[in-house]
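To fix ideas, we quote verbatim one protein's residues and fold tokens.
>
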Amino acid sequence: MQTPAPFDYERATSVEGAIASLERIGPDARIIAGGHSLLPMMKLRLANPAHLIDINDLDELSYIRDADDEIRIGALTRHVDLLKSGLLAQWFPVFREAEQVIADPVVRNRGTIGGSLCQADAAEDLSAVCTAAKARVVVRGAGGERVISMGDFHVGPYMTAVGAGEMVTEVRLPRRPGGGSAHEKVERRAGDFAIAAVSAAVWIDGGTIADVGVGLSAVAPITVELSRAEDLLRGRAPSEELFEQAGQIASEDCAPTADGRGPADYKRHLAGALTKRALRRATARALHQEA
């Protein structure tokens, strides 16, 4: 049986206490919540933190609420709460669609949005969802808060912009009218990591694409923000020809590797095809909202 290396453990009773422990212990400390990403890596000795700080008691970080022009999601919010949220379903149906194909009920009942984003695994779904939704991540340390765009949050495979002595506390989504979103995923079996997945969010104003976000999973070392396709789409009337061009860009701008889930050229094909599907469905929802 694979077991983690020895580690110390403490259970935080407040965000401030967790941050104080991170500062006191230094880089050998890790935050743990659901644990479905960190613990498997510890068992394989791919991650060897000397100290775990458990934040499961911090109910202050578990919420989904409307705040003026944003939807704010606490870092400890579970997948199942994202799946069931009526507020998210109204403004960002991409969350519900993604959550329906993430893992299984056991994982969805324990895993958290903060843990998913901080794992920075290019194959997980929520990073692409948050990229498409133009989310911003709130990071708190002893010196205060920083708000980081999704484009700047992941800095490499399994690496984030969260600094020493900091922790993710919240995810913020812009709440704008005329929006629609969708998630497309191809997987080997239900609940598996994606062979390829695409999230898209589209905002329509006066029949044209006022803004758009596209995020790709599992087709590069980190989640892909499809900025070149976004630039192509922004300010233009939606059309099948435009979606076709965006799909071609997706195939060109991803960087998949061959593995047990398929060859690289197949993944490139999927990236393009799923981008077209996601944009088509997101746009249809946005047009319905505008009407």
About this structure: The longest strand covers residues 194-205. Residues 264-290 form the longest helix (27 residues). The chain has twelve helices and 14 strands.
